[in-house]
Amino acid sequence: MVQAIVTDIEGTTSSLSFVKEVLFPYSASHLRDFLHTHGQEPPVRRLLDEARQLDGDAREDEQLVNTLLRWIREDRKFGALKGLQGLLWEEGYRRGDFLGHVYEDAARRLREWHGRGIRLYVYSSGSVQAQVSLFRHTAFGDLTPLFHGYFDTRVGGKKEAASYEAIRRELGLPPADILFLSDVREELDAASSAGLRTGCLARGEGPPVDPGPHPVARSFDDVSL
Ligand SMILES: CSCCC(=O)C(=O)COP(=O)(O)O
Ligand SMILES: [Mg+2]
């Protein structure tokens, strides 16, 4: 019996285009201003130091900014970049520059599953801060009360079975009682290797999704527990 659902964001609860055409460009165009205003604050400094360690060449501030901008263009999933984006996007949400996109079927079924006592979690490459901000500011209101917890790449990469084993341990449930939802075959394969149930979202946005052996759903309405 499914007791917990762990969901990906981009391509699963939320559209690819929101992430690629709203969030990423926003972080690129606001990065310099954000660092100018907040660059001396301890959480930001820690993330900048972490980014500097990943790119030994980026000793000067300008070089580091250029490295971060390149990582955004290349969609790199480094924790330091994701942490900075999360802080920067939170400002954007609070200013009302955009809302977190969540598909209607996802918002509705997440509410239904929560009402049935199923524990809901998010696992995304976006930082925990970015995940919370997205679900707090949606067209369907604040969805954060629905979630028990959030995981980002601090628990490990999304294509590694060990990450799902760590999540399972944290949830304290048998793996077969946990359903992982994603639009990326390699993530589903990794979750399945750790013994989790899987569901592949193929929403028809962007390049065709390869479901492999995983049950396919065109929306959360098709997800069977
Ligand atoms: C938390 S919204 C931003 C998502 C993001 O930064 C990203 O890289 C997409 O990651 P996902 O694991 O949700 O596909
Ligand atoms: Mg995804």
TrEMBL record:
Keywords recorded for this protein, A-Z: Amino-acid biosynthesis, Hydrolase, Magnesium, Metal-binding, Methionine biosynthesis
Region (Disordered): 201-225
Cofactor binding, note field: Binds 1 Mg(2+) ion per subunit.
Listed Pfam families: Hydrolase
Signal sequence coordinates: none
Gene3D superfamilies from the UniProt entry: 1.10.720.60, HAD superfamily/HAD-like
Broad EC category: hydrolase
Gene Ontology MF: a single term: acireductone synthase activity
This enzyme's EC code(s): 3.1.3.77
Pathway per the UniProt entry: Amino-acid biosynthesis; L-methionine biosynthesis via salvage pathway; L-methionine from S-methyl-5-thio-alpha-D-ribose 1-phosphate: step 3/6; Amino-acid biosynthesis; L-methionine biosynthesis via salvage pathway; L-methionine from S-methyl-5-thio-alpha-D-ribose 1-phosphate: step 4/6
Cross-referenced InterPro entries: Enolase-ppase_E1 (IPR023943), HAD-like_sf (IPR036412), HAD-SF_hydro_IA (IPR006439), HAD_sf (IPR023214)
Keyword tRNA-binding appears in the UniProt entry: no
Cofactors, names only: Mg(2+)
Catalytic activity: 5-methylsulfanyl-2,3-dioxopentyl phosphate + H2O = 1,2-dihydroxy-5-(methylsulfanyl)pent-1-en-3-one + phosphate
UniProt family annotation: Belongs to the HAD-like hydrolase superfamily. MasA/MtnC family.
HAMAP family on file: Salvage_MtnC (MF_01681)
Subunit note: Monomer.
PANTHER family for the chain: ENOLASE-PHOSPHATASE E1
Function description: Bifunctional enzyme that catalyzes the enolization of 2,3-diketo-5-methylthiopentyl-1-phosphate (DK-MTP-1-P) into the intermediate 2-hydroxy-3-keto-5-methylthiopentenyl-1-phosphate (HK-MTPenyl-1-P), which is then dephosphorylated to form the acireductone 1,2-dihydroxy-3-keto-5-methylthiopentene (DHK-MTPene).
Descriptive protein name: Enolase-phosphatase E1
Organism lineage string: Bacteria, Pseudomonadati, Myxococcota, Myxococcia, Myxococcales
